[in-house]
Design brief:
5 copies of one chain form a homopentamer. By secondary structure, chain A is mostly helical. Chain A has one domain. Helices cover about 70% and strands about 0% of the residues of chain A. In chain A, helix 3 packs parallel to helix 12. Chains A, B, C, D, E: GO terms for molecular function: chloride channel activity. Chains A, B, C, D, E: Keywords: Cell membrane, Ion transport, Membrane, Transmembrane, Transmembrane helix, Transport. Chains A, B, C, D, E: Its main location: membrane.
Chain lengths: ~350, ~350, ~350, ~350, ~350
Amino acid sequence: MHAGRHYPLKHVILWTRRETFAFAVIAAVPTVLYATGWSWITVPWLPIALIGTAVAFITGFKNNASYARLWEARQIWGGIVNTSRSFGVMACDYLLQEPGLCGPAVDLAAARDGLIARHIAWLTALRFQLREPRAWENIGLVHNAEYRRYYQIPERDNDYLGIELGKLLTPADCAAILGTKNPAAQLLAQQSHALRDLRERGFLSDYRHVALTDALVELYEHQGKCERIKNFPYPRQFATLNLLFVWLFIALVPLGLLQEFSKLGDGFVWLTIPAGVIVAWVFHTMDKIGESTENPFEGGPNDVPITAIARAIEVDLREMAGQKDLPPLLQPRGEILM
Amino acid sequence: MHAGRHYPLKHVILWTRRETFAFAVIAAVPTVLYATGWSWITVPWLPIALIGTAVAFITGFKNNASYARLWEARQIWGGIVNTSRSFGVMACDYLLQEPGLCGPAVDLAAARDGLIARHIAWLTALRFQLREPRAWENIGLVHNAEYRRYYQIPERDNDYLGIELGKLLTPADCAAILGTKNPAAQLLAQQSHALRDLRERGFLSDYRHVALTDALVELYEHQGKCERIKNFPYPRQFATLNLLFVWLFIALVPLGLLQEFSKLGDGFVWLTIPAGVIVAWVFHTMDKIGESTENPFEGGPNDVPITAIARAIEVDLREMAGQKDLPPLLQPRGEILM
Amino acid sequence: MHAGRHYPLKHVILWTRRETFAFAVIAAVPTVLYATGWSWITVPWLPIALIGTAVAFITGFKNNASYARLWEARQIWGGIVNTSRSFGVMACDYLLQEPGLCGPAVDLAAARDGLIARHIAWLTALRFQLREPRAWENIGLVHNAEYRRYYQIPERDNDYLGIELGKLLTPADCAAILGTKNPAAQLLAQQSHALRDLRERGFLSDYRHVALTDALVELYEHQGKCERIKNFPYPRQFATLNLLFVWLFIALVPLGLLQEFSKLGDGFVWLTIPAGVIVAWVFHTMDKIGESTENPFEGGPNDVPITAIARAIEVDLREMAGQKDLPPLLQPRGEILM
Amino acid sequence: MHAGRHYPLKHVILWTRRETFAFAVIAAVPTVLYATGWSWITVPWLPIALIGTAVAFITGFKNNASYARLWEARQIWGGIVNTSRSFGVMACDYLLQEPGLCGPAVDLAAARDGLIARHIAWLTALRFQLREPRAWENIGLVHNAEYRRYYQIPERDNDYLGIELGKLLTPADCAAILGTKNPAAQLLAQQSHALRDLRERGFLSDYRHVALTDALVELYEHQGKCERIKNFPYPRQFATLNLLFVWLFIALVPLGLLQEFSKLGDGFVWLTIPAGVIVAWVFHTMDKIGESTENPFEGGPNDVPITAIARAIEVDLREMAGQKDLPPLLQPRGEILM
Amino acid sequence: MHAGRHYPLKHVILWTRRETFAFAVIAAVPTVLYATGWSWITVPWLPIALIGTAVAFITGFKNNASYARLWEARQIWGGIVNTSRSFGVMACDYLLQEPGLCGPAVDLAAARDGLIARHIAWLTALRFQLREPRAWENIGLVHNAEYRRYYQIPERDNDYLGIELGKLLTPADCAAILGTKNPAAQLLAQQSHALRDLRERGFLSDYRHVALTDALVELYEHQGKCERIKNFPYPRQFATLNLLFVWLFIALVPLGLLQEFSKLGDGFVWLTIPAGVIVAWVFHTMDKIGESTENPFEGGPNDVPITAIARAIEVDLREMAGQKDLPPLLQPRGEILM
């Protein structure tokens, strides 16, 4: 997430410089041909404008969907914050020594801290899983790869899941989790087994046991929603359509401009080149911004800042449990917060 | 679901080649007539542009609705993932030997595994039911049938419901289920009878019995939502309107282009044919992509990948229950994941 | 609901023939006047195009709202399916002889079947209430009344509420219900009284009593949502605006076309008539399709198929309860499913 | 709510006659100036069309928001219907003489009727509060005030809150409620105190006590949502923008039309006046209809019919409780249902 | 929130005067150049109109998103009202002396008042946290800073969190809270500890304890949703795009107008300046209004009035608990309600 006012104009220009050059070539070729006598190489502007409107529609539609995906991703992580805090207060205040029940003694504070540590482990596993690459993601494209000089992706560049989990779980639990297909999902199952254990030892009534399990059910929902956005891209049939239409339009624009400028006089046709570049740049950049938004967990600068959110949750939960040596909140680097 | 970056251009061209030929004919006929002297066969472009805008509106509207149907379908299956995992942890940790109650002994692990196996049977029945054909679906159209060379539909091409259920249920349960009108719905009813049985034997308290039944209620909701999308098509009155308007527009476009090109000079009118094909192709393909998206369970390459999701759920649940010999996750074939 | 691929072109033409004739007259009058010398009776096309865009906006808006009403109606009935199935499994598996409580003996199977029969009675009353006429509905308009030759509305043409309820309820209950202002609402109240009775006889714990009542609460929600759509039309102020704008636009179009065609030469002005009819037909039909969609319970061919859904629920519930002589599922007649 | 097919054309004309006159003046002034020689007072149509498109966008946006506000208001009152019916059946069937508890005797039927009467009192207080005036509402504008001859607002014209509550509550309760800042909110608090009282006397278990309180929680939600729509207008910054843009556009239209008509010949410029009025009327009326919809509780003819809905709830609840002398349902007066 | 009918025209003009001057310069430069002979400095209008349409699309899209953010913020605070009232009635009526349990005596009224005071403290902390500045907010821009002469932001201008909390909490609690990273979140954790204490003293059953905790869970949800809107701006990649496109369009408009006006005659080109200013002003102001809406907690005049809502909640809750000396409701100052 960019955490400032705007991306600098310089970054935008650098980020779009490759295709801007292509637009110039696409506009220059017919212009030169026209100037050398192929005066038939023009098309009336009006049908092109109609195609332009159609392109604006589908690009608008795609940007809408991209924005919705990003915003939903942020909502889900908002939900993770909320359920985590709720789970935190329940872990603090639902473990009681029931008068009517008795079981082997257990240190309630240790049980509480264990639940909280395993919860943080779940957050850690989840953010590592969400930042794994997918075939349709754009972060590997040359203009995006180049931009990685301005920020870092903790889950790929610095940290390792095994080490992070090792700080939070017992070695046995950690090993068991790392061997599964979906570590985050199995961490919640471990959490559920721990609650059953507390129930059997008499520190949870049936009713509070179910209330705590309901929090786990909600966490599964949040995780599943994240996985849905991660694993189900903006439909590739629409993306293919967009790609084809935008470039078809960009190829047609200079032909239409040639005709409009040629009406003004012969010297004017050379204005086709800058004008064509501007129109192409507007439509293509509109599309490209949408594309850079549609995968909110790809490790790009427009990602939902899940590393920072996970850290903030950790601080809140440890503060609730009265722990002291809290890690610092994460700050943006170069205006990018991950 | 296409699991790559884009459909190849070659596929798009092949997939639209039949109507592209039709557009050429539709554009050629008035052009030839014009060239042979029927110079009155032109229409001013502006009213056609207005119809084009209206067509863009209703096509955009339809694509919006198609996308919403696809996305909702994916959300529902995301919900099935979540509720399945929740049901899994409850099946593992809610069956307890209550201190205050006593009933005949039962193997809790066997009861748990039975619940999980029946759940997987429900997933299986559901995906078979969702992939049955409907009158309004497009998968049988020639351009889509042809495309089936690139992928396979497990529920139609390889597997059989009876055999799949036979691996998961007792023969008596299996036979009873296969005789009903809606096997998936009756499998959940069987699940509910099993819970009642566990309740009566004293392994579930009233409270946990209701909590597990609530999970079944959620599964009924997911199933009902899938059936809603499966059985209630994009309203045929709107689909009829779209079909008529798009073709009416395609028929009018060459008449308008003739007039625009004839202004440039007589030789230019022949450009009507390529220009007409391009405009028609843009509007028709936009419509056709929507049509290929509106039925997310028809067995097409743009389907929600329900076979793969069901398999992933199976793996998660068996891993939770500590089972070992897990089946592999499904991978895309030719970039199509089913 | 139309359950095929498309409405036949012939039906569309017949269904719109009256206003098509009107459009021809509206376009012919100024054309003839123009041809007889009133050459001032033209208007520049551009302002008309702007009004056309505004009309396209508000018609698109209305079709959006109509579609949303239809889709919500179908969602509600999907919800009715889900809650009905859930209520069915609860009726089967929540009635137990509690160990700690005792009351007069009752046949649990009879209690279960009574709950299910009353539920089907509720479905029946609801669909009769939803298919009653309202002042703003379109089913009585001549083009729609004419179309009723292709299908039948069971709740109006063949069946009677009193007879249908008589098959499901005791004569006393039936008489009491038929005397109330809102039979469906009071049937759920009867259902609630029956649950209280079962609670007092000791076959329901407090907890399961509330769980079953919660299902009734959900059914009230579904019923209330249906009544909202039934009793609150698409706001008449917007509908009035649409009607005025569409016809104002239709009246202006020929004046603008006259000017455009007159630029091409004098003979061309007669093309105003077919062109005017086409433009008018496109905009008016777009509006009319929306109007035919906005009341999803009016008994039209685009209705939500509530008779068929209610029958499917009946079959599912009776199958759950192990009943045998099940009625058949309803099939479309002439591609219309009611 | 208008409960017929359409507002009569005559009403629309009368309702918009003032600004129509203004449009004529605005169009006439530049036309006359032009005719008297100020031929420079024209503007090319195309930039004006672009502004027109922008105006259509923001007006469409506003009408969207207005419709959403109206529809949400109706949904909330649909929710009030549903929760009221649920509360009704709970009031009937949740009050029991618990076997394990005992308290002082109380007439359960009287308790039930008291709960229902207080609920109706809440509905009454709520609809009076919602129909109080706000600074941004339009009902006081001259064209709307004039329209009040066609209908009546019960909460302002005929009834008084104190009298209505006096029929439903004890004098002490009534006096206490009328002294508070938010009578409806405090009525629900009274209802909660009554439930506590029933709980302490042993007629409600802990579990059913909470279930009934949950219904109150839902009623608070409905009330709060109504208050949100009542107290938070369509944002005035957007409304200001709309007002400025529509009138700016209306002022520019005649300048553009002058140029278009002057192309046709000198006599044609006088057509600027009717054409300008039509364009202005279309855009302004579109805006004005939205404005008349955006406050659904202002006491206008497009209000949600909360008086009628409240009455229907009263009838349903009293019928559930077996009461006889029911008041009649409210009917539209002059097609307006309040 | 502006609580009147419209912002005065004078305020709008003052608020936009700086950029209006810039538009005049941008339009004047090419006009003067043209007049001095650079007659090639024109561009055909049609491609500019297409860019204008694209700009209208993305601005409309942004305003949509801004409105959605504002409206969601208001919905969340509506939810805070609802949950607060519910929490209020539960604090009043759920604290009981259970017959089956016994613990040390406590003054139930004091416990109730303590819960309510801590709830008000939470509201206070939340509104202070929400009104802290963020890097992307607009309140510091010169035209907005200037506007602060018309209203005041209580959380920045007059009040201090420490003093406000000191009136509501014990000194120990207050000190503990002020030392944490997120005081509002920790206040709810304190509230939860207080409930645990009441549970252990026997004044809450397990069931009512969980019901009250569920209210805290809901409050965490409301807080988390507010923080999501506060901490996650309208995506800066889209905002950057908007900024660039609007200014690019503004720079191109005079070039297109020059060409249109030059067609009318040489003197007409000077009309480019006022016309260019008007078009630029319309598009830029549309964008700027959206920008002033997108951060609903920045302390601007279009904020959600959270100070006033928090006060209204305080009054309702104290009235429920029978307290007397209530503070007054807040009124708008200069039509701005904060």
